[in-house]
Amino acid sequence: MTGRFVVQRHRARRLHYDLRLELGGVLVSWAVPKGPTLDPKVRCLAVHVDDHSLDHVDFEGRIAKGRPGGGDVIVWDWGTWTHARDTDPADALAAGELHFDLDGEKLAGRFALIRTKLDWLLVHKNDEFARPGWNPEDHPRSVKSGLTNDEV
Question: Would you list the domain boundaries of the chain?
Fold first, then answer.
């Protein structure tokens, strides 16, 4: 199974990154406070949030203050994702462990979303795309427009 993915850098009440995977006609979504990384030693908190419509796959701009998610949003990365196992990805999510490959402009390689008792963890596997010390904040520009959040 292959679908689109987007990671949006979102400055609302707090800076975070929204990871969205196209699945079942929606974008299944997680807020990742420190952003996804290619560093396989880093375990990123990922808070599962409401699904979003497919219209959000390329959304970039400002959400009015006072509205849910109010703040600026850029398309930090996008591309395709592929389920890495021979099972239904919806079943894998329901079971709490989804392994997938990203083919984006910034992110690439094998990732896993693993549900813990409270939230989820996003990890990058130690593969040929792994980059120790890789920090998403070192790559602040939109892949859609080339703008930063300040410039949107």
Answer: 2-151
- Are 93 and 100 in contact by the 8 Å Cβ rule? The answer is no
114 touches 128 (CB < 8 A): no
pTM listed for this prediction: 0.95
Residues β-bridged to residue 23: 26
Measured from the Cβ of residue 60, the count of other Cβ atoms closer than 10 Å reads 19
Torsion angles phi and psi, residue 121, rounded to 5:
-120, 140
pLDDT tens digits for range 101-137: 999 999 999 999 999 999 999 999 999 999 999 999 9
Q: Which of 48, 62, 53 is nearest to 25 (CA)?
A: 53
